[in-house]
Amino acid sequence: MNTVSNIWNHPKTSAAGLLIAIVTIAGVLTQQGIDLGHAGSGTVVTLIGALATALLGLFAKDPFQSQATQSSANATAKLGVWALIALLLPLPFLTGCSATSVAQDIVNWTPALQSAVATVDSTAALLAPADAPIFAVATVGFDAASNLLVNQANAYLANPSASILAQIQNQIVNFQQQVNASILKAAKIVDPASQKLALAAVQAVATIVTAILSLVQSISSKAALVQMAAHSTVKLAAVEPYLDHTQAAQIVAVHYGEPLPLARLQVAQSEQDQLLAGF
To answer: In this prediction, what percent of the chain has a pLDDT beyond 90?
Structure first.
């Protein structure tokens, strides 16, 4: 029997088995003194084990459920399978293994970033005459910001150093601030058609900048993150209402060659991590 098909057709059973395995492994790791770091007053391993145990309880099913209820539960379980996959698989832009791999991933984003910035540059001509100058001013620094970031990533690959990493950390925050500010300005465009075009264009750049910020965040020290967040004055929470999460997930899914549901979870987790870090 095809393994993937079996998992998809029997999501609750597969997920329950996976959760049991997680609980078991967590217990073994705890006995061996492996904690994977601290989470609050406990450890990451105990937190994972507790979450897996709690989820197992949610998978308990009443034997007298109606067919409609069972169908609904099955659909919910399949969503749970995606959530588990997102938790257990290495997330491309949430778990940078090293500064070198992060720098390479930034370079890998270059074609998509350049294309998104080019779209922003050409969008002004499509807006209403009164809106075009406002949009052009709001996005004027995107080309320079993207080029500088990519150049820094290439410089790190050629000669890894703490100083260049610090430059990348500073630049990605600066770029994020430019993008966030431009989103707020685009949102003030009165003409509905112009506003839709402007937000969609900036959103593409914002998605890539957010992904790169997550990469850099994953390999930055706590002290560095505090410093980075201190320079983030236009917060993600302020622009979040204007973001198109479906568009963001599509960009991420295409770039990493992954299913759209998984990309959705990654985008949501990335935004949550950045909010918690103070961005």
So the answer is: 59
